[in-house]
Automatic annotation (TrEMBL):
It comes from Chenggangzhangella methanolivorans. Belongs to the peptidase M24B family. GO terms for molecular function: metal ion binding; metalloaminopeptidase activity. This is Aminopeptidase P family protein. It comes from the Bacteria. Residues 551-610 form the Peptidase M24 C-terminal domain. InterPro entries: Creatin/AminoP/Spt16_N, Creatinase/aminopeptidase-like, Creatinase_N, Pept_M24, Pept_M24B, Peptidase_M24_C, X-Pro_aminopeptidase_P. One of its GO terms (cellular component) is cytoplasm.
């Protein structure tokens, strides 16, 4: 089997980081800070919506430092600068950032606010862009600044923008309608539910700054950022009356404008400030998610007389619980994606042993198979196509300089797709050649953790934090673990990383029927190999005979073979073997009819009983 070599349309493999630019750009920034009467600057990797994926015009941290990870923060002072990352990026930051210009700090060792308290000198004036810092996050800096005796000064013009001469223009992708046939509920019905929540909370209005919430509640999508179909904009939803949306008119066709006008007043984003001041002028109580909304909006509301009601955006919880239409779409999208993935896994099985297939070629082949469905809209994130030691980096991104051949050992592919009816995310680790006894042991322990989550039954009200350890027990038994959450929420033709639901030590929200999550334990031996096995699961009601509690469990909706060659059968219990055999039988039954005869024959062998 061969795949036509088609270059990836949705993923670039170019190395955009250039550590050599860090020092001169830092020097230019310090000069601009001095011109503005500032001694330092606080720069998060963020835009006004706190998106995971930023439009190119908002990638200020990457431009300044060269670091391209999804989380980062930079603190600049006259004689020292630091870049903060989490445990996912400790290796990447060393490769992409000039260590002589920026000191890399793990946020778990020292948060940026603590670093500021330690390094800032009394009397210094530290600038910040109030549109990029969340209210909760900024208050930590306010406490640190007070302790250090320094002043925090809001800037009207971000100093990075001033020195970024070739900064891209803000995005203007067309807004599209996500009709009721896909959404399962009209925008009017969603807005009615949100307004009911606001009345219950005794709030006069809700400020919506999260573009995912904006897209969901108004049944619209867009293309302003990579991999997630977001229209960047804002909304104000009153407890009574018509909402207002703030979207650039250049993104709106007549048809979209007419549809939106049925639900809301339409204004330009530049009109948001005046609308917030109008809320303040009448003393309104405005609900605002302090963990996700910019401090600039909170300050405007407070200064104009509004009362802030800090709390989670109620749209986020409503969005997390999928309706029957969204769940049917997710199941359909996953079966379509499963057929493409089966073709890909067969392709890897046949081509990798020949010695010519590399990480980029594999990622391009997978995107090609997905595009051949005829309905692929985007990939849901940059595919993590990782061979050998590269797979030990959980968030590895292949570039032309890091590209490796798929030689003997493990190959890990973590990927996903955006279809109008659903968002997918799946990881498989496959054997090329032979796997050592240690590799099979670790692979099987990861599988045991995966099965423990897939088969978990738990009472109503239980959160992801309470079951996260299920995925780790078999690894803990041999003195090891993995340093990421076991599962994240997934949207409905929205973000592949959706909150508030999650399976992790930080997952405090109760898991409710209709929520979609990932189930992805892993194991990573730095410099050698990495393992992750990921399916998406749906929380469902569960009846247990003789039980006296309302229970929950999971439905698995991802179907792809788990490499039997990497399993050490003696480590699996009878129940675990039964689950695996049943999962493979279901995979063959569901996916077999969707693929060509040759792929079905391969699938039959891959899904045979252990």
């Amino acid at each position: 089997m061969t795949a036509k070599h088609v270059e990836a349309r949705f993923q670039s493999f170019d190395e955009t980081a250039d550590p050599s630019q860090g020092a001169p750009r830092l020097k230019a920034l310090r000069a601009e800070l001095a011109r503005q009467g500032l001694d330092g600057f606080l720069l998060p990797r963020a835009d006004e919506h706190q998106n995971e994926y930023l439009p190119p015009s908002a990638e200020r941290l990457a431009w300044l430092t060269g670091f391209t990870g999804s989380f980062g923060f930079v603190s600049v002072l006259p004689d020292v600068a630091a870049i903060f990352v989490d445990g996912r990026y400790t290796v990447q930051v060393r490769a992409q950032v000039d260590a002589a210009a920026f000191t890399a700090v793990n946020v778990s060792d020292q948060p940026p606010s603590d670093w500021l308290r330690e390094h800032a000198k009394p009397g210094q004036r530290i600038g910040y862009d109030p549109t990029l810092h969340t209210l909760d996050g900024f208050e930590r800096f306010e406490r640190a600044a007070k302790a250090a005796g320094v002043e925090l000064a809001a800037v009207d013009q971000n100093p990075v923008d001033t020195i970024w001469s070739d900064r891209p223009a803000p995005p203007l992708a067309p807004v599209t309608l996500h009709g009721e046939a896909l959404a399962g509920e009209s925008a009017a019905a969603k807005l009615d539910r949100v307004q009911t929540e606001l009345k219950t909370q005794k709030a006069d209005a809700l400020l919506v700054t999260d573009a995912h919430c904006l897209a969901w509640v108004f049944n619209i999508r867009g293309g302003d950022v990579a991999h997630t179909p977001l229209p960047l904009g804002f909304a104000i939803i009153p407890a009574m009356g018509r909402p207002s949306v703030f979207l650039d008119a250049r993104k709106l066709s007549n048809a979209v404008r007419d549809a939106l006008a049925g639900s809301a007043e339409i204004s330009e984003p530049g009109d948001l400030d005046a609308a917030l001041k109008a809320l303040g002028a009448r003393g309104a109580t405005v609900r605002l998610d302090a963990a996700a909304s910019a401090v600039a909006f909170a300050r405007t509301l407070e200064a104009s007389g509004a009362k802030l009601q800090r709390g989670a955006d109620p749209i986020a919880k409503l969005k997390a619980v999928k309706n029957a239409t969204e769940l049917a779409g997710a199941r359909a999208a996953h079966l379509r994606d499963a057929a493409a993935l089966a073709r890909f896994l067969r392709f890897v099985d046949e081509e990798a042993p020949k010695g010519a297939l590399d990480e980029i070629g594999a990622a391009e082949a997978l995107e090609t198979f997905r595009r051949e469905t005829g309905v692929l809209k985007e990939i849901s994130f940059d595919s993590i196509s990782a061979a050998g030691p590269n797979a030990a980096l959980p968030h590895y991104r292949v570039t032309r300089s890091t590209n490796r051949k798929l030689t003997s050992g493990f190959y890990l592919i973590d990927s996903g797709a955006q279809y109008e009816d659903g968002t997918t995310d799946v990881t498989r680790t496959v054997v090329v050649g032979e796997a050592s006894a240690e590799m099979r042991d670790r692979f099987t322990r990861v599988l045991k953790g995966h099965i423990a989550i897939a088969t978990a039954a738990f009472p109503k009200g239980v959160s992801g934090a309470q079951i996260d350890a299920f995925a780790r027990r078999a690894l803990w038994d041999v003195g090891t673990d993995f340093d990421h959450g076991t599962g994240h929420g997934v949207g409905s033709y929205l973000s592949v990383h959706e909150g508030p639901q999650r399976i992790s030590k930080l997952g405090t929200v109760a898991l409710e029927p209709g929520m979609i999550l990932s189930n992805e334990p892993g194991y990573y031996r730095e410099g050698h190999y990495g393992i992750r096995t990921e399916n998406l699961i749906v929380v469902e009601a569960r009846k247990i005979a003789g039980g006296d509690r309302e229970m929950r469990g999971f439905e698995t909706i991802t179907f792809a073979p788990i490499d039997r060659r990497a399993i050490e059968p003696s480590l699996l219990s009878a129940d675990e073997r039964a689950w695996l055999d049943a999962y493979h039988a279901e995979t063959l039954a569901k996916v077999g009819p969707l693929v060509d005869a040759e792929t079905r024959a391969w699938l039959e062998a891959a899904c045979a009983p252990l």
